[in-house]
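Sanity check

After download, print the first record. It should look like this:
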Amino acid sequence: ATTEIYTRSLVGSVRCVQETALGKKMVLMNVLSNCLKAIVNAERAGKRQVLLRPVNKIVIKFLRIMQKKKYVGEFEIVDDRRGKKIVLDLLGRLNKCGVYSPRFDIKIKEMDGMMDYVLPSRQIGFIVLTTTYGIMDHEEALKKKTGGKILGFFYQITKAPLTN
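Expected structure tokens:
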């Protein structure tokens, strides 16, 4: 049994401190990473829905990009007056998603090299960036001719049907 306490630091970032039954405190530093790990674990377990908590604006925008690319289904934001929760419908299309930490700067010229490094193929998956125009995938960033900091990635590897 754990309880959660939310504190605000001097910089303004919200930390989630979880108190365990033994009284020790664990600090949750990367909310996006925990949410994406929960999604991947639920996909691998064959679940149809997953509960994500706590949630911030970056997680919501990341999920909207994944939803726009049809990797996840609809999601509902539940405001519990603490850290918010999201109930996310899974489509079974996601093989891997993750966070890049620290958030490296990517210039337009370096985008192809980063796609080769992060994604299994250029045609498979997306890199999510935070730019001066907002959070977007790498294709939209190339269209707007802007670089930014890498947030994370997601992709699906389709299995070829067996032929006899």
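If your output differs, re-run the checksum step. Summary of this record's structure: The CA atoms of residues 62 and 128 lie 7 Å apart.
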